[in-house]
Amino acid sequence: MEDIEWGKLPFGYLKTDFNVRAYFREGEWSKLEISDSEYMPVHIAATGLHYGQQAFEGLKAYMGKDGKIRLFRWEDNAKRMQDSANGLLMAVPPCELFKEAVFSVVRLNRSFVPPYGTGASLYIRPLLFGSGKRVGVKPADEYMFLVFVTPVGPYFKEGFNPVSIQIARDSDRAAPLGTGRYKVGGNYAASLMAGERAHREGFASALFLDAREKKYIDEAGPANFFGIKGNTYVTPASESILPSITNKSLMQLAESIGMKVERRKVPVEELAEFDEVGACGTAAVISPIRRIVDSVTGQEYKYCKDGKAGEVSSKLYRLLLGIQYGDEPDPFGWVTVVD
Ligand code: PLP
Ligand code: COI
Questions:
Q1: How far apart are CA 110 and CA 63, in angstroms?
Q2: Does the annotation count 183 as an active-site position?
Q3: From 172's CA, which of 16, 31, 228, 296 has a CA 20 to 30 Å away?
């Protein structure tokens, strides 16, 4: 791994040594298999390919100063993958299988966990899809569960430097009673138009509004949204956003430092009232936002007057990363050491 420039890694795919796989056939899950191939044979009529019957997860392994590898809240990812599986009528991977897969794939690729202090981490990508053949629109009777890993740097190239984002008004990523609360590929396909347009026009990401009324904030591309108003942490409550494990953790951390937390509808106009705003997620960690522009009205909201992240966002960022890398005590029991 000598040739990897850990400190310069983008959020991208880098080949590692192994991935792990399990198959659901005839009503049961197989034993976990280890593979050194980046490819897999898939039936041409698999429902995952045709009808989007698939879900994925994203979590990270962090190398500590003490040389120990830590996983952050992996049970929450296991549970969310089960929710996604239920939502799309897929076979549900048992928590034990998820755990064995995630821990094994990290151990097998130990040398790809970026060293402490480089700011990088090992991204873990569990994937579940209908592998059984169907032509009519129906759930498959066979499923494949696989987990690969790849070392990554910051999701937004700006890292912890504030980004600009664009309010998307001419497309929605998820319908009010749709699949937005599940981590399924279709939501990301639906977000591509708005995301690519935002990139073309110089923004790091799109900010989606509620699809029904276009009045409330939903989420920021592949991350939840939060705003800080005085001593209060505000984040949208919505049926069509992903329940972010990072956001849930930030809410707990905010409370632990004496802040008030409000999870409720956030009207777009309220953007004018926040002292700080940011996007949060496993990949993005906390990405402070310095500017939000409405793609239709042209209205602009500005933050980070001195060009730097706000005080509260910076504090929450340090607290969260401190726990993830094992620099700070873990009072909530969020971290598991991979032995
Ligand atoms: N929202 C979307 C659409 C995402 O893809 C992600 C990433 O997983 C998040 C929010 C953040 O969720 P988490 O903090 O669990 O990674
Ligand atoms: C994550 O934060 O894990 C995400 O899901 C982002 C991703 C879709 C690249």
A1: 10
A2: yes
A3: 228
